Amino acid sequence: MIGFINLFKEEGYSSAKAVSDIKRIVNAPCGHMGTLDPMASGVLPVGIGKATRLFPYMIEKQKEYVAEFTFGEERDTLDKTGAITNTTFSIPTEEEIKKVLPLFLGEVEQVPPKYSAKSVGGKRGYQLAREGVDFSLSPKKVMIYGLDLIERTGDKSFLFNIKCGGGTYIRSISRDLGYKLNSLAYMSKLVRNKSGIFTSSTAVKTEELKKAEDISAYLIPADSVVNFPKLILSKEKAKKLLDGVYEKGEYKDGLYRVYNEEEFFGVGEVSDTILKMKSYVRE
To answer: Which of 17, 108, 128, 197 could be 13's S-S partner, Cβ–Cβ 3.0 to 4.6 Å?
Structure first.
């Protein structure tokens, strides 16, 4: 079984647990594209079998979230699961929030949360944070395409729609937005509605998969997530490619979806008329 499951991860358990559940259902190796925090819900694309090798070549990696930020408190995890580390009576108005949102658009530098999977000296940030180790993380550049205020949800809480590139921490946006408004804020809710071509409208929950008579009905073909030109080879030539033998032909330079006469083989790259497999999904 090779392809993708567009999973809707529910709040309360980790992405690793979600993938483990899918692995048991499909009885094949699995991996996810883009971790969702346990307190978050939403789209979690899961690669089945060697389809995970296609993650670097996905058509689109933009993500879309609906997030609730609550002002007046700062928490060590930057979300509702953490301990309160500071408080303030300064709560911004809707008008004040809207005024500063444009400052967060485009390519910006963002410091990841300490409670994250970022590696520090061979250890994960969240491990060091739980051990009480004092450390700092370097800022990284991320892309934010859209940050819009949807509505006020409480005395101190506001709902936002966020469109961003991969690697963006929504929790960090809540922290930085709080600082920019001379306040404090943490992420109190998060739903991912889009991850690349995968959307919440077509996502399936784990319980639905467990009840399904035919899992393949939920399987998204592996070649549908990459958008390169199609290159069809004979079975013999395709087999040679997998054996490490390069294929020479009148091909333009670039990346291709490589097929034999019957099935998708993976992603290949042509350089100076020489075709070489970059990532294959079949042996």
So the answer is: 17
